[in-house]
Write a structure and sequence with these properties.
single chain, 817 residues, Rossmann fold, 6-stranded parallel β-sheet, 27 helices, hydrolase, P-loop_NTPase, nucleotide-binding, 5'-3' DNA helicase activity, DNA2/NAM7-like_C
Amino acid sequence: MIPLQSGRRILLVGDHRQLPPVYEPSHLRAASKSLGISPDSLRQTDFERAFRVTRGVALNTQYRMVEPISDLVSDCFYKDDGVQLRTGRGESRAWCEHLAFPWKSPVTWVDSGAGPDSTGDSDPSKQGKYVNPHEARLVLRLLQRLATPDKAELLKDIQSSHHPIGVITMYSAQKALLEKELSKAEWAASIRSLIRIDTVDSYQGQENPFIILSLVRDNISETQGFMWEPSRINVSLSRAQERLAIVGAARMWRKRNKLDPLGRVLRFIEEKAANSISNRPSLRRPKMLDEEVDAGETEGLGKRRLANVISVLLPAREYRLECSWTTERPLPAIEEFACRLIVMMESASPSELQVYFGLSKLETDGLVGSLTRNRLVDVADDGLLHPSAILRAKQIATGEVPTFTTFETREEDAVFDLLALQLVPRRGYNNSRFGLPEVPMPELAKSVAPDRVAEAFSEQSRAFLEFSWGRTKESFKTRLYKVARCRPMRTLQVPVDMEISLDVGATGDLNVHRDAVERLGDNRKRPLSIELESKVADYLASESLPKTAASFSDFCALVEDEVLARYVRENEFDLSKWLRDRDADKTGYGSQLTRGLLGPIYLVGNRTTLINMLRSEDHEEERSSIAHWLPADVPFWAANSTELVEFVAKFQKALDRKDGGRLVACFKGEGASEERSLKRAFHSRLPHAVMFSGGIRLDRFELLVVPERLAVAQYHVQPSKVSAVTLPIGYATTDPNRVDRITRLLAQRLAPTISASISWSADSQHVQSLIDFKALGIVEMARLKPSGAAGASGATPVASAEKPHPKIIFKRPKFDS
């Protein structure tokens, strides 16, 4: 206001149809009551008053929106001021006309309130934080239409300082839901960086070529909340440059709210669509998305099944911060009543307090000292106690004296991940994390400024208190006052899990869901922030999957899996159809001796299945207690900490209840370098490993064989071509014929071996105690005295002409067909 008072001629430039300043409702009511002015008058901005009084001039040419979007905004928000907006820009980019529904039209309203899948809005927190899950799924489906490789490249080529795609929502809770679901979507990897999701209040002054507006509200009472405000709706619609898709329940604005802004928008779109004679009208009438895009495609009909859990290590760093905290504490009863007495009497002497409460001289001195230290009273020169400013403020603000504030300075140790600078709970980690895949540290994260860390700590101080103290009463009453100093301590690696689960949409499409969590104990998990989850997902997508010569059809033929063979289409496995049939109990093998397995063998459900199958067999005769595990040649094989370690311990005990069995990983490798690499990756989680050198064949097959007892055969399918994550699928069996066949397949794959040596073992020095050569059909042809080198390394090579030492000849097993 000062410049307005100083100038002789004032030129104000603005738009009172856009978002005004925001006032707290309680402040607005108090000001209205105090000044005797209606709340609507108080909401009117000074700019709008000046515009009305001076008959301000309205500019009528805009250069942001294409004409159909401009016409919508002009008719619904500026016509009352006598303004008809003109468009000063050209047509949309040519390739926009060839996009799939709804993007081929400049403006479309997608009716989220129609159809059986509509969920309506909900407010789980009862704090006005509304979400609409069905609407979120429709938004994701619209985004998926832009995620094809060719469309993604076109979007990246748009020359703009803003994101090509913007998603505007009316509620922050819906924003959080959209961000979470988008971070899990495998298909979004190519366009995730091109999308901005935010609330309308954060979007004023912004623009994007493509805009999706999620209205959220959908209820029987047709309560629209704050969407009666024209400025809010105007801002949300006028951010779009090329394409605008409104996702909302049309019935909400057809009757009760038809005169409100969104009611006018809906009516304008319907009238334009009805009057259009073009084959491609620029404005489409509201319609159910499943007329052209199936609204249920993102809705899982079947059971969601856990298919993999991949553990990775996040880069993190511990910081030591000097923090000042304030804590509201209840006053002891005698101090509270002393304060009340002093406030009521305006002043009191220590002797009056002593007589009133019947205290001794020592107790009185303690009471006065406590009141003084807590700055609740001031001691005058004559010794009288007067209410301090703090005490008066408390009494005026609340009408009582409930608490006093303590001030404490102490050093805190906090751990931040270096990808999103999010707080991580400080806890001890076991050795099973060693060797897990490591998400690389960005260059910028190697030298994070202390001020930035202090700012991040201030923003997340509430989470820090909950991590450190739990959800106690004291933690809720404690507030961070300031961070004085911050210095880095040590660099850490924090293990987190990416849980991958599957379900099938209404149209039969496969939905891949991802949830990134950090384990806080045996039964507690903490979901990661959306930003951090996206970083982990991008890392998994960045890895490449080796090409394989063996197809899924080859796998089915070699292991005689007649069930999975039914779902092979052009050498690809139809995972969605198999999941649907599995939900309908149509994927059985006709016997309890053979059961289908989805996911790694160490997942809890699969672990239980395998252990129960071992326990159900006859133990009267002595059988092998060695499980031979041949890995698949995929990037994230056995990349797991908690489940894998628990599986090893329980499975080995089930192999031999008396002495315990051995689970032995059969790795392919050549030389000391590869052996060291394998040891770094798996030594902390697998107790035994034997390295086979030579022409061993590894591909997407994964085999587990306990000779004559149990066999598992799985093939690693790739559910998304943009990610290296694989999902093992196959069967486990105790059927003698199937066990024999998979045993021979394992022997055939090990047959080209030149030598076998122990890479590491928890309790053995000899290869023969880890590999059951006889049971596998790999016959030892000679047992000669080992040489010093062979004995030291545990290697069992083929016979040499120079020195006699143990010789194993691998006979290739032959299959009947």
